[in-house]
Specification:
The protein is of the alpha+beta class. The protein is 28% helix and 41% strand. The protein folds into 3 domains: 53 residues; 73 residues, no CATH class; 111 residues, no CATH class. The longest helix is centred in the C-terminal third of the chain and has 43 residues.
Length: 282
């Protein structure tokens, strides 16, 4: 009787496990994201408004969480602006010499001076009539001559060479081995900001499902496979994309449930067989 009852339950559990497994193998069709719209490969171009974009890269990396796909767009920004700050008190090259940036304290500052840098020690050393370096007497710097006389250092030196600039003026900024004609964009007590036209290639990173703004319009990214990408307007396609992702999540939940039935059925079968063949007492 014990073995007959076990056989009945065994058939039931085997049928449940077998049916679930058969559905997984045959009847369960995994959904996928299937969106209309153009598909691009690396090197393809497309336009958004009056701006052209190039798919400059697509990559796929395998990891513990599956395949992670990413990409990159590039476009030529003709109106790109570069900026540079000249800190107050810093040295800057101008007209072949070194100058110091000098901005007066105050509010609403709009101008600054370049003060030519001078090596006072070198000037004194090169003058045969000067004895040593400048000395200080009662807080005043003095130049002592070989004949024993002295003169205030400020009177001995030539007038300081200065150049004045204001907001909106053109400033020849020396960068490495080239001189760039820049515009003085703003002046503050801490720094002078220069700017100039700097057309260049810009890049935009792409990630699965991530939003990206192209020429002021909102788009999002989907990678159908490891070598192609879709860049689609969010207002037309994003709701469908989210709906299809929800279907994929629901399918995964159902699939996990079916595998649970298979495993429980097999486990119950093993336990029933083991119990059915236990020796009877007495």
């Amino acid at each position: 009787m014990q073995r007959r009852a076990a056989a009945v339950y065994l058939v039931i559990f085997v049928a449940l496990a077998g049916g679930a497994f058969a559905f997984i193998e045959v009847g369960a069709s995994e959904p996928d994201v299937s969106l209309d719209g153009p598909t691009y490969s690396e090197g393809d171009t497309f336009s958004v408004g009056d701006r052209e974009y190039t798919v400059s890269g697509i990559s796929a990396e395998s990891g513990a969480d599956g395949v992670t796909r990413s990409g990159e767009l590039s476009w030529y920004n003709e109106s790109a602006i570069a900026t540079e700050e000249l800190e107050n008190g810093s040295s800057v090259a101008y007209d072949g010499d070194e100058y110091t940036v000098a901005v007066e304290n105050g509010s609403n500052v709009t101008s600054f001076d370049l003060v030519k840098s001078r090596n006072v020690s070198a000037i004194l050393a090169e003058d045969p009539d000067v004895e040593g370096t400048a000395t200080t007497d009662d807080g005043e710097e003095l130049v002592r001559f070989t004949d024993g006389t002295t003169q205030p250092l400020s009177e001995y030196l030539d007038p300081v060479e200065t150049e004045s600039f204001s907001t909106g003026d053109t400033f020849p900024y020396q960068q490495e081995n080239e001189t760039i004609d820049t515009t003085i964009a703003s002046v503050s007590t801490s720094a002078v900001t220069l700017q100039w036209d700097n057309p260049q290639d810009e890049t935009i990173d792409l990630e699965e499902g991530a939003n990206v703004t192209l020429n002021g319009e909102q788009h999002f990214t989907h990678f159908p496979d490891n070598s192609t990408v879709k860049v689609l307007p969010s207002d037309q396609y994003y709701s469908s994309y989210q709906s299809e992702l929800a279907d994929i999540d629901a399918f995964s939940d159902r699939l996990n449930g079916l595998w649970g039935i298979v495993l429980l059925g097999l486990l119950a079968t093993i336990i029933l067989v083991a119990l059915a063949y236990l020796p009877n007492k007495g």
